[in-house]
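Intended use. Records like the one below are meant for learning the mapping from a protein sequence to its folded structure. Do not use them to infer anything beyond what is encoded.
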Amino acid sequence: MDFLRLLEGIRSPLFNKIFQFVTYFGQELLIIAFICTLYWCVNKRFAYILGFTYFTAGLCVQTLKITFRIPRPWVIDPNFHPVESAVPAATGYSFPSGHTQGATSLFAPIAFHTKKRILSFLCVCAFLLVGFSRMYLGVHTPKDVLVSMGISLFFAWLITHFSHILLDMECYRKRIVFCLICLAALISIYTLFLLHTDTIDYKYAADCLKACGAGIGFAVGWYIEQTYLQFDVKTKHIYTQVLKVIIGLLIALLIKSFLPFLIGESIFSKMAEYFILVLWILVLYPYCFNRVNKFSLQKSID
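Structure written out for the chain above:
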């Protein structure tokens, strides 16, 4: 808390706006949009590396959140005041930091993967700045940020290092999917147990189950796409790629917004919502533009 009070003492309206902007690079929406664009249009293989890192690190962080149940800094010390604009997005428990996990899961694999030193340096600066922004804004302690960063860096290194096994060796595919589904299922059972015993509130359980649903959706979607679909990201025209991203993200947003009205607001509905959303991103939408490409090709031949 001493470090947070030190940062509180040097706050200014300008720095508040700057670090509020920086922290957006750890937001779920921005990260998912980036991975979708990469997956649909640019580099499917690397998008999978980002996806594996993001979802496995996210499952780990969410499990730690409901296990340790550490409140936010202003709850620990009522005399401490965060930057007000950052509070609405600071939901759930404080430890570890979700925004830091998101930013590190996005930028660390790029830093590991690229051969350009300047890009690697910028990516490292990016997730360090997001972590610092969470402390400057007063919504996380150094422990929250450092542990989250460490977890995400570990998964980023692990998945980047063993990406050839994940993505190239078909003999391991079923085992990997089975392990991911079992992991998410065990975390779901653990979450429901904590909820049933009134150890955690509904909203904290829902956050963890969303991560589990997304994790299962990613595992299933990855297996289906790699085994049966194997779509091609390439198109003849840039405007087609732009249109592809816009339509895909708009439909994903519609699914996120309106699916709760169809399946309800129960704790299991939250899990199903993210499962369906990720399945749309990985399988259903690529299947749609695969069909469109085949139809266009057939029409041009005729």
